[in-house]
Structures are given as C-alpha cells and as structure tokens.
C-alpha cells in the first residue's frame, strides 16, 4: 500500500520547533511528510532543519516560479491525503475563517478539498480572546478539525489553555484521521535536536548542501562487543573499531548525519559524528534500532555470536571443585533483523570478517541475511587492529575487489561508492 501523505503547514508560533519532532514521529509511522512554512515560521525554525527532517524541499514562496511550474500550490494540496497546520497561530486561524489567501499556506488552505487538521498553540489570552473563539467556531462549521490545546505553564510565563499538545498525541490524531493505527512502539528513538548538533560539530560542513551525502542519515556500527561471563570477566574479540570509525568519519566529511554505535574501543569520536557507546550485542541491537530511520546502515562491528546464558551477580570463584561450565546462548543477528525491520534502511550493508574462502562465504551471507551488500575482508593477517584493509564488495550484481589500502582511504572509497548509489 502506498504511504499516506501529509502536507504539514508550520506557522510562526513559539512551538514551531515541535513540528520537527512531529515530522520524525510521522515518518516513523511510515507517513510521508512535505512541509510548507509561513514567513513567520522561518523565524522560529530554519527551512534547512525542516528539509533535513522531511528529506524534501520546503515550500514557502508562492511566487517562486520554479516551485509554481514544477509543483504549484494546487498540486501541493492535491498530492496530500491530509493537511495539518501545526502549530496553528491565531493569525492563520483568523485568515482561514475570513477566507484570506495572501501567502502560500493560506492559498493552499483556501484552494484545498482535502481534510484539514489545525493544531492551535498560542498565549492563553490570545486563545480566550472572543475573536479567536469566534474564528474557531467558524472553522469548525466549515469542516476544519481542530485539536484542543493543552493546558499548563506557557513559554510566556502564563498558565492556561493554549499549549501545543505533545507531538505523539498530534501524531496519533493524524493517524486516526488517515485511518491507520498509531504504533506507539515506533515513537522512541533519536530526537531531531541531534541533527543541528551534528552539523554544529563540523562547522566547515554546516552549509555543506553541495556535499554528496548531505541530508542522508548514515548509521555505522564499529568495534567488538563484550559479553559478560560474570561481573569481572567477559568474552571479546580482537576488533579495534578503526575501520568502522574511519567509515563514520568519511560519511560525516561527505555531509551525512552520522550515528556511530560503538562497542568498547579507545578511539576518538570523529568530528560531526553522534556516538553512542555500548558494550554487549544486546545493547548494540537496541541502540541500532533506536537510531532508525537511516538511509544507509553499515554494520562493521564484530558482534559476538554468542553470550553466556546465565551471568551470575557475583564473581565465579575458583573453589577447587573443577572448571565451571560455560553455557552459551545465541546473540541477536543485528544485520538480519534490520533487513526485516519496518524501518529497513534503503541501503543495508553488512561486513564479513573471514579467514578463508572470503568471497564464497560473503556471497552466501548476502543471500542469507537479506542485506544489499556484504563487504568481506580477510582477517587472517593483522587486519584487526592494523592500519590497512582490503575489501571485496559483494552485491547482487557481482564482486568488486579493492586492493589493500589504509583504512581511512578504503573508507572514503566505500562512502564514494555509496554516494554513487544514491546519485
Ligand atoms: C516570540 C514570538 C512568539 C510567538 N508565539 C506565537 C504563538 O505561540 N502563537 C501565535 O498564535 N502567535 C505567536 N506569535 C505571533 C505570530 O508570530 C504572528 O501573529 C505572526 O504574524 C504569525 O504569522 P503566520 O500565521 O503567517 O505564521 C509569536 C510572535 C513572537 C515574536
């Protein structure tokens, strides 16, 4: 079934920043969102942030000929299943009630035959003003759905009705209007507020819209996992995390918003990368799912296949009664579970560390895991912890073998190959 489409009109209220969170929540429900911002709204939230969240152009100027010829205000409404105004200022409610159409947002609202939901947010006195209440009554009579604001302390220091309802409540109401269930399990995860931070951390790239992966979200895992045997002992492997960190760095340099889920390693976080540290495979899986949605996931981490079935709270003592048994149980297969996830990244790449029959094993892994590419490397030498690596990139179209190169060089080559895939 084609995803439902919401045309989100953001107007100039203090709560406009919450529209970013609303977009994230809607997208996690599988709803496509296109945004229109009034001139005042752009004083509160930048169109760049909104564009990163919607992964689309943000519309604002009715007289921009390019927009009008390519898409036009009529088409913007025609291509939507529902129009949502969030937050809706007292001003736009008044204009709608009066039938005024003096900018792109109000013209769309006057021209549309689609259902409209307004989510007002304003100072309590503005909300209680007879003019606003008169306008709301008129709008309800005109068939506009209006979500009541929350009551509570307001940014302006007053108390009463007028606060924007919490974004999950707005998202749930939108799902109801679209006739689809609201899956609360999909509300957790990364907050959009991390996005500007990621770009802040790489000032050279702040306006890097020309960079090939600008606007793309890349998720990378790196390093080993530690699987506890008891509070002081663990099962580990020799992965240093250097290849995954180099890939995360290359992705950030190419303008992507990068989340790096790292096992226990002693490496410096690359500039502009959001790093989440984990220890075990179970923790890594949870953080990987939390970091969705992503356009690309590159799972470089050497995740332990097994963990101890029972981990006692106290250290296992050497008490002369022989060697204690170590019973193992299987860890989750993060790659295979991402392949089946509701929010499966468009490009899902697994790594295969092999010591023999490299390409043969990687080709089998590609088929078994349901991912798009497998990057295989021969770890029989000193690759784990070493400076260099050689990749065999296995896709459904065949195998590309890249020569032994420094890890940062081969990381950039991989990210360039990924950028080509999206070009
Ligand atoms: C700091 C600040 C916060 C504002 N917050 C709100 C608000 O929460 N709700 C509202 O209705 N108007 C608010 N306004 C007033 C609107 O920005 C103003 O009415 C504007 O003309 C709305 O334009 P628009 O409806 O085209 O977006 C605020 C203005 C300022 C300067």
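-> sequence recovered:
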């Amino acid at each position: 079934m084609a995803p439902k489409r919401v045309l989100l009109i953001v107007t100039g209220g203090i709560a406009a920043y919450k529209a970013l969170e609303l977009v994230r929540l809607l997208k996690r429900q599988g709803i496509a969102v296109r945004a229109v911002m009034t001139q005042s709204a752009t004083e509160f939230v930048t169109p760049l942030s909104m564009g990163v969240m919607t992964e689309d152009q943000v519309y604002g100027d009715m007289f921009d000929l390019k927009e009008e010829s390519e898409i036009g205000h009529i088409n913007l409404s025609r291509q939507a299943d529902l129009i949502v105004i969030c937050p809706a200022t007292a001003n736009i409610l008044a204009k709608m009630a009066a039938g005024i159409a003096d900018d792109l947002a109000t013209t769309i609202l006057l021209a549309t035959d689609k259902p409209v939901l307004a989510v007002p947010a304003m100072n309590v006195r503005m909300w209680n003003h007879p003019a606003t209440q008169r306008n709301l009554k008129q709008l309800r009579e005109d068939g506009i759905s209006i979500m009541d604001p929350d009551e509570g302390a307001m940014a302006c220091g007053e108390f009463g009705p007028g606060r924007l309802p919490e974004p999950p409540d707005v998202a749930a109401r939108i799902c109801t209007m679209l006739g689809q269930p609201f899956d609360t399990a999909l509300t957790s995860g990364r907050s959009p507020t991390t996005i500007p931070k990621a770009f802040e951390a790489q000032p050279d790239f702040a306006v890097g819209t020309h960079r090939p992966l600008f606007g793309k979200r890349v998720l990378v895992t790196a390093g080993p996992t530690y699987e506890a045997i008891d509070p002081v002992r663990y099962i580990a492997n020799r992965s240093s995390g250097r290849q995954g960190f180099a890939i995360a760095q290359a992705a950030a340099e190419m303008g992507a918003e990068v989340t790096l889920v790292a096992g226990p390693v002693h490496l410096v976080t690359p500039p502009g990368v959001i790093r989440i540290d984990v220890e075990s495979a179970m923790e890594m899986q949870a953080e990987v799912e939390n970091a969705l949605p992503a356009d690309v996931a590159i799972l470089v981490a050497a995740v332990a296949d097994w963990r101890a079935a029972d981990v006692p709270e106290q250290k296992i003592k050497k008490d002369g009664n022989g060697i204690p048994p170590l019973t193992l149980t299987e860890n989750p297969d993060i790659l295979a579970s991402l392949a089946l996830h509701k929010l499966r990244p468009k490009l899902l790449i697994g790594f295969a560390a092999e010591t023999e029959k490299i390409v043969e094993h990687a080709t089998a892994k590609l088929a078994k895991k349901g991912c798009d590419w497998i990057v295989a490397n021969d770890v029989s030498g000193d690759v784990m912890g070493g400076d260099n690596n050689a990749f065999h990139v296995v896709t459904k179209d065949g195998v590309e073998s890249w020569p032994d190169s420094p890890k940062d060089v081969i990381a950039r080559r991989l990210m360039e190959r990924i950028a080509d895939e999206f070009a």
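The first strand starts at residue 5 and ends at 10.
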